[in-house]
Amino acid sequence: MVLMPIWAMMGYYDVDNKVSQAMLWLYIVVSNVVLVNLLIAMMGDTYARVKENSDAEWKIGRLRSLMEATRQMHPVPPPFNLPLTLFHIIRNCGQQDKNVVAQQEAKQWEVGGYLWDLKREKDRVARDLLKKLTKQRASDDAAEVRAEATETRIKGIESRVELIIDKLNALTKFIC
């Protein structure tokens, strides 16, 4: 009888009396609703955490694409850069072998290399954004604490005013 709810969730029902059937159905419905709500809450929490960092990730990606575009593109627009492009193609035709390309790729990750600089810049931007988000969160928390303190004071004042009104009502009844 203890394992009956587990078998019931899998579709096997062997219950004789109506009370047991009703309780079993109630357990199945409630447990499924609770599990679905738990799944929704977990997905909502994950979505909120991802959304917190989405702005920083977008800015880092945007910075990376801009730096890559400025490194690869020529300042002269496409229709007018054809002579320059042909000149570079003819000049560089066959000069770079595989070892030179491998050395250049290895140098990119060395200190001061292009990829090393990109990573440093990305880390700097991420640190700055994290500091900014931390300060903003701290100021939001401080504002929330101030709002709660103000609300507590207002409730205290309201209770005092109600006490004074009750005393005045009692006094007016005593006088009249």
Protein architecture, described:
The chain has five helices and no strands. With 176 residues, the protein is an all-alpha fold. Helix 2 (18-72) crosses helix 5. The termini are far apart. The relative contact order is 0.04. The chain has helices at 4-9, 18-72, 82-92, 98-108, 114-175. The longest helix has 62 residues, at 114-175. The chain folds into two domains: 1-94; 116-176.
Into which percent range does the helicity of residues fall? over 70%
The count of β-strands is: 0
Strand content: under 5%
Distance between the termini: 74 Å
Largest β sheet strand count, sense and barrel closure: none
Given as residue ranges, the uncertain stretches (5+ residues, pLDDT < 50) are none
Task: Give the overall pLDDT as a whole number.
Answer: 81
**Please, how many domains?**
2
Structural class: mainly alpha
Element pattern in H and E: HHHHH
Radius of gyration: 35 Å
Number of helices: 5
Global outline: flat
Essential attributes:
single chain, about 180 residues, mainly alpha, 2 domains, 5 helices, about 0% strand
Q: What are the SSEs and their pairings?
A:
Layout (H helix, E strand, L loop, with lengths): L3 H6 L8 H55 L9 H11 L5 H11 L5 H62 L1
